[in-house]
Write a structure and sequence with these properties.
Blueprint: E1 7-8, E2 15-16, E3 42-48, H1 61-74, E4 79-84, H2 90-103, E5 109-115, E6 118-122, E7 133-138, E8 153-155, H3 156-168, E9 172-178, H4 216-219, E10 231-233, E11 244-246, E12 250-252, H5 254-266, E13 274-276, H6 277-291, E14 299-301, E15 312-316, E16 335-337, E17 346-347, E18 373-374, E19 387-391, H7 400-404, E20 408-410, E21 419-421, E22 428-430, E23 433-436, H8 444-460, E24 468-471, E25 477-478, E26 482-487, E27 494-500, E28 506-510, E29 524-529, E30 536-544, H9 549-557, H10 564-573, E31 580-589
Helix pairs in contact: 1-5, 2-3, 5-6, 8-10
Length: 590
């Protein structure tokens, strides 16, 4: 049987469907494969759609596409076709796929990436989907109320069709789809918080005029028939993907952002110059999980024939050219990826016309933390950044004293604040989560400091992610509940584990007393019980090749609160020790 792959954009995402296996929903999928052939080429098709004309527009899909395009060019992909917004009509997309398939020669590697809305509709070929629903990727002029407009989409089976054509010509595909179906969430969204925009659309399907290029064999293709493919799903069937705000980047998809950083070399955590499937899976899963405030859990699918620990995806060299995989190459050969330019490790946000004006200049010595996107490479000293704070009722007079402490801009509750304080309940919300409860205005400075630390961590984690998990899950945990923090991949590394509560209080968790700072076992777990103060505790794991003595001293000397600037400075000085950072939020309620 020829190697086949079932790629189903399920209800706004992409899914792989293997016979006898559950469909993975809302899949932002990365198919990492070997190619063959002495004269192999590397090509790409990158699609990003924000400007939907008849359904809710998006804010970060075009930015995702541009970021992936830049990352692909950085690894030497020159034959690259970029389709943004109205350029991505059905006719243009199909023509681009046909051109790719026609040009493919043995050994070619083809990158195909999508960012935009997805949806699901009743299956067109009966029995091809376990739940009877086809997944589709929506194009900018899609209109669910018009037969012609309703045809502006690409069926999951049509992606299968073109990937099969590319494979039949001897090529291989790297397919990344940042889209989602619209299922549930790890935690419910608090209606007082910021509105979340999901990459999915729900509608009542009507009879369209679409003539599919896919046939029955495309519809029934099994993921396990594609023997060299490994899949990375953004979330499972029950979950959905929201666009998230990354400081210095704007709104983005977590997987696209993480995938781009991985291509730049950040996934090579052991520093051996080779990125294995196991490394890239762990990196993208951890980074996407943390950037999404644990609402997005990446799911891995790989065929039984592949060992992700031995599967070399790319090699890091000083060159920028892609070396295609060949049929006779020895294990470990593959794409040649250049490391990021050390002089380009920061992206400074451009000031917009509506940029907030701080209530006053920051007082000397007060904490300031970088809110710029980090690239793999040494972190620079973080510049000052403003935290946008709003009162839920729009009356910011009570917050003037907080703003005068520095690094705080008071904004309206509908002006995209980082923190929203409810004067009635004294809850503080970040996005759609309550992160601190029973907070008076005099206590808000601690919440602001915690936010600064979290934003810096979100940027830094892209440079090197430490595996850390919250068990049994990322849902809201009630008072008295027992949870477990598990830090993995620790053998031979030095560990520091600490907690930063929602109100900004800090607590060292490891090492304490006779705890050995260097771990000999692969993982470390600590059991915790939920108690006051309720909100969102931030559990941070820092590991390195040498003992993090300065960080330990800083945490032990801190009686209650810790300066975000000092923490960032200390951690930045540990970069040369192979520093990895990971964190999880423990969301709690009375």
């Amino acid at each position: 049987m020829k190697p086949l792959i079932q790629i189903a954009l399920c209800a706004g995402g992409v899914a792989t469907r293997a016979r006898g296996l559950a469909t993975i929903w809302c899949l932002a999928l990365a198919c990492l494969v070997l190619a063959s052939g002495a004269r192999a080429a590397t090509r790409g098709l990158v699609i990003g759609v924000d400007a939907y004309q008849h359904v809710q527009p998006l804010r970060g899909a075009v930015a995702d596409a541009r970021d992936v395009e830049k990352a692909l060019r950085g690894i030497g992909v020159e034959d690259l076709h970029l389709l943004l917004d109205r350029q991505a009509s059905r006719a243009d997309v199909l023509a681009a796929f046909e051109a790719l398939a026609t040009a493919t020669r043995p050994g070619d590697t083809i990158f195909i990436t999508l960012a935009g809305h997805g949806a699901q509709e009743p299956e067109r070929i009966k029995g091809s989907e376990p739940d009877g629903m086809d997944a589709v990727f929506l194009l900018p002029s899609f209109d669910p109320k018009d037969p012609d407009g309703a045809s502006e989409k690409i069926l999951a089976t049509e992606f299968n069709h073109y990937i099969r054509k590319i494979e039949a010509a001897g090529g291989r595909v790297v397919f990344v789809a940042d889209s989602c179906s619209g299922g549930g969430l790890a935690r419910e969204v608090d209606p007082r918080g910021a509105e979340m925009v999901y990459r999915t659309v729900r509608y009542e399907p009507l009879k369209d005029r679409l003539v599919s290029v896919a046939d029955r064999e495309d519809a029934f293709a099994s993921v396990n028939d594609f023997h060299h493919s490994i899949f990375l799903a953004a979330v499972d069937k029950k979950s959905r993907v929201a666009e998230l705000k990354i400081a210095g980047e704007g709104y983005r998809g977590a997987l696209s952002y993480a995938f781009s950083r991985a291509l730049e070399g950040a996934a090579d955590v052991d520093g051996d110059g080779r990125i294995t499937a196991d490394e890239i899976f762990a990196y993208v899963r951890q980074v996407a999980h943390q950037l999404s405030d644990q609402r997005q859990v990446v799911v891995l699918e790989s065929p039984a024939q592949q060992d992700p620990r031995q599967y070399v995806v790319a090699e890091l060299t000083r060159g920028i050219a892609v070396r295609p995989f060949a049929a006779a190459v020895s294990p470990g050969e593959g794409l040649v990826i250049s490391p990021a330019d050390p002089d380009q490790d920061d992206i400074t946000p451009t000031a917009g016309a509506g940029a907030p004006v701080p209530a006053s200049s920051p007082a000397p010595g007060l904490p300031a933390v970088a809110l710029v996107a980090s690239r793999p490479g040494p972190n620079r000293a973080p510049p000052g950044a403003m935290i946008r704070v709003a009162a839920l009722d729009g009356q910011n007079a009570a917050l003037v004293a907080v703003a005068q402490q520095g690094q705080v801009a008071l904004v309206a509750p509908n002006a995209n604040p980082d923190l929203v304080w409810d004067p009635r309940t004294h809850d503080v919300l970040a996005g759609a989560d309550i992160i601190a409860r029973n907070i008076d205005t005099s206590d808000l400075s601690g919440v602001v400091e915690r936010t600064m630390v979290l934003e810096w961590l979100k940027q830094r984690v892209a440079s090197g992610a430490q595996t850390v998990r919250l068990l049994p899950g990322d849902n809201l945990h009630a008072k008295g509940t027992h949870v477990e923090i598990e830090v993995g991949k620790l053998t031979g590394r030095y560990l520091v584990l600490f907690n930063l509560s929602g109100n900004g209080n800090v607590q060292l968790l490891y090492p304490l007393g006779s705890d050995p700072p260097q771990r000999i076992d692969p993982k470390y777990s600590v059991a915790l019980q939920v108690r006051e103060p309720f909100g969102a505790d931030l559990i941070v794991a820092a590991t390195a090749n040498q003992r993090l003595s300065e960080l330990e001293r800083l945490l032990r000397q801190s009686s209650r609160r810790i300066s975000p600037q000092k923490l960032a400075d200390v951690l930045s000085r540990d970069e040369s020790q192979g520093l990895r950072l990971g964190f999880v939020g423990l969301f709690t309620s009375p």
